[in-house]
Amino acid sequence: MRELTLDDLDDMVLGATLLGTGGGGDPYIARLMGRQALEDYGSVNIAAPSELDPDGLVLTVAVIGAPTVISEKVPAGPEFSGVVNALSSYLGKKPVAIMPIEVGGMNTLIPIAVAAELGLPVIDADSMRRAFPQIEMTVFTLAGIPASPMSVADEKGNVMVFQTTTNQVAEKLARSAVMQLGLANGISCYPMTVQQIADFGIQGSMTYAVELGKRLMAVQRGESGAYDEFLRFAEAKIYFSGKIIDLDRRTTDGFAKGTVVIEHFTDPNRTMRIEIQNELLIALEDGKPIITTPDLICILDHENAQPITTETLAYGQRVDVIGLPCAPEWHQEGMLDLVGPKAFGYDIEYVKMGGN
Amino acid sequence: MSRLRIGIDVGGTNTDAVVVDEEGSVIASTKSATTLNPSDGIAKALSEVIEGLDKSRISQAMLGTTHPANAIIQRKSLQKVAVLRLAAPSSLAIRPGAAWPRDLHEAVIGPAIIVGGGYEYDGTEIAPLEEKAIR
Questions:
Q1: What is the pTM of this model?
Q2: Residues of B in contact with A75 (CB under 8 A)
Q3: Residue among B92, B120, B122 whose CB faces A76 most closely
Q4: For a Cys-Cys bond, which of A20, A174, A324, B87 suits B118, CB 3.0-4.6 Å?
Q5: Which of B115, B89, B85 is closest to B97 using CA atoms?
Q6: Residue-wise pLDDT tens digits, A66-122
Q7: What are the structural domains of chain B?
Q8: Pairing state of beta strands A57-60 and A95-99?
């Protein structure tokens, strides 16, 4: 086990913002919750599955709703411990650890606050190692692990437990519940044993977010060689550097959808277009797909290497577009049907990053 | 008769006041030392600069000052304010001023409470306004 300190928290926030690939909700609010929880309850331990009882129950916790609502309507707290307690009593078993479902964006930090409150460790794993907008978009779905039983709660004391037939139905039911409950709620899904997480989860996600953030922080401080080290660690590459010359963004069907066009700094004939649905999903250069979901597209401020979220993209920004390969655990049967370009309605083939 | 606008700048050293007309020509101006209590200097500069003018022509007055920024940076001459957030039971996870530096928080934030009130994204009430708690 390793103890998570307040310093780690800032690295983790930066790493989580990057892994949000433009979406996932601004982790600022979640960082404040994490910081407050560490101050109020003391430290939190990050544990590898091998350090816990293999038969022990692990419960996930996340915020579900619309990022725009969540950033205005600050969480209360009981909706998160509430969903964990509700699922724990439904299952008749106490959890041995808490797990983030999504290490990317604000849901990286919520489990820290809950684990601190409940006095439990956070297991060093997740199901995405990036941000995705829907509950079924996990490596657990690929492994055939049900999202249910799952619980949803609000801050007023409304709690429900769902039993569903598929993870797609789980998404639909949870989504309709949160639309009635203020679009900023707590959810706990995919209850699992430690052994199942060791077998089917994405390993080391929390540590990865901290290490990634640490290296990006060094880039932001302008340390020599830091950018190369950051790219090496993330196995990432700068695909394009230029200025945003067009931006089309609208909120439809509960998603922030849009397109951003970037003109190359030195060659104005080269343009990159990025398609957005909450997250940055497809990057095309002159119409040819270069980076495609589930690989990660991140837009960084060209001057200070700060990840830019889709809400804060603006005309005239000078940016670098970098691509990171998705977690290796994604590469298994069914990946493209679940989270490939076609799953989001793009008639585009997946381009595997890294060449092999 | 064109309308007049007043501009006042309270700096660290001097308090300046000017009156300009619609063409931007300066009609009157004054400069005096900034007083310990900035309000005194503002009142003095204002009465000096409008002396002899037809007050009915004055349409706007604007004040710019570095005092709040200086007070915050130096943590000096700050007064405590009460914070009332109408949101409970929502938002309780983050206290008012949670992201503020501790010393600034101590200097400025007085009684801070989160009481029942506020609305959801769809216009429904989060909770009825808790008037009793506010009183």
A1: 0.85
A2: 90-91, 93-94
A3: B92
A4: B87
A5: B85
A6: 877 887 888 998 999 999 999 999 999 999 999 999 999 999 999 999 999 999 999
A7: 4-70 (3.30.420.40), 78-134 (no CATH)
A8: parallel
